């Protein structure tokens, strides 16, 4: 029954927390590629190679379905993986689509042509690699027309969060919001395009102001996954044991993860 959750580091734990609460009967196996984090400054080929290696490890752990909880991996590697790498009987899904469907008020699986939507000006905050991939804009264009997206690469935020320096993370978030507002003074919605950023959602909201709708991914992905598994129960893999895998130092990563989720987490070597 196991489902895999892949991330470059600790950010995907926000998604894991939400999906585990939504689907308590499903065992989740989490893989953090902490030895190579962050992905946001890597090139597309490097991200692809690291992501396929991690996803294969989750397949080996009995997960037939893997969620890429890393936006950079979803942006830079997912399409290539789906077209040329994912084995028959396995499935890899990204975290962009549930977010875009919520933004455009489309139901999960609605494949009708793109149409005009209420929101016309959208701010995207993401890692440099996610921004340069333009994957968000590409996926949005499949579903909506007439939407202006201004993307802000948020260098340094993931590192600060992973290091536990929330004062620096807040300062960086406010600086990135100011930079974006110089180009788009009045966005109607803001997309937090990194799974680390929900930890800073209140800071983003405060910096953007109360009139901007801020979208983050964890709960949206959880609802989409629940819907997907209801329609595709065959994608629950044979694995039965939940767990946490890391390419980094298990003791160090466990300590950081425990602080991250405020509950005890124990990683083992992937």
Summary, kept brief:
With 270 residues, the chain is an alpha/beta fold. It contains 12 helices and 12 strands.
Overview of this protein structure:
The protein is of the alpha/beta class. It has two domains: 3-94 and 218-269, Rossmann fold (3-Layer(aba) Sandwich); 97-215, Rossmann fold (3-Layer(aba) Sandwich), CATH 3.40.50.1860. The chain is built from twelve helices and twelve strands. The protein has helices at residues 13-22, 44-60, 71-76, 78-84, 96-103, 128-133, 135-141, 157-162, 166-183, 201-208, 218-231, 250-261; strands spanning 3-7, 28-32, 65-68, 91-93, 115-116, 121-126, 144-145, 148-153, 189-192, 213-215, 243-246, 268-269. The strands form three sheets. The protein has a six-stranded parallel sheet with strand order 4-3-1-2-11-12, with helices on both faces. β1, α1 and β2 form a beta-alpha-beta unit. It is globular, with a radius of gyration of 18 Å. It starts with a strand and ends with a strand.
């Amino acid at each position: 029954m196991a489902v895999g959750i892949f991330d470059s580091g600790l950010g995907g734990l926000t998604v894991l927390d939400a999906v585990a609460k939504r689907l308590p009967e499903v065992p989740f196996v989490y893989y953090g590629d902490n030895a190579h984090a962050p992905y946001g400054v890597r090139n597309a080929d490097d991200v692809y190679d690291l992501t396929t290696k991690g996803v294969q490890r989750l397949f080996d752990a009995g997960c037939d379905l893997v969620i890429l909880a890393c936006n950079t991996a979803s942006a830079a590697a997912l399409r290539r993986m789906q077209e040329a790498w994912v084995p028959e009987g396995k499935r890899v899904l990204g975290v962009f689509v549930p977010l875009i469907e919520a933004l455009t008020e489309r139901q999960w699986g609605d494949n009708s042509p793109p149409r005009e939507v209420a929101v016309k000006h959208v701010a995207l905050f993401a890692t440099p690699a996610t921004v340069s991939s333009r994957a968000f804009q590409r996926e949005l264009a499949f579903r909506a027309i007439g939407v202006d997206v201004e993307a802000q690469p948020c260098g340094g935020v993931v590192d600060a969060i992973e290091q536990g320096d929330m004062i620096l993370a807040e300062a960086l978030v406010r600086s990135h919001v100011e930079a974006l507002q110089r180009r788009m003074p009045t966005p109607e919605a803001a997309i937090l395009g990194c799974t680390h950023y929900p930890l800073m959602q209140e800071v983003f909201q405060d910096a953007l102001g109360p009139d901007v709708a801020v979208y983050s991914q964890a709960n949206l992905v959880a609802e989409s996954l629940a819907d997907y598994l209801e329609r595709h129960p065959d994608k629950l893999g044979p694995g039965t044991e939940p767990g946490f895998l890391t390419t980094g130092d298990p003791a160090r990563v466990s300590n950081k993860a425990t602080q991250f989720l405020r509950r005890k987490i124990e990683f083992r070597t992937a």
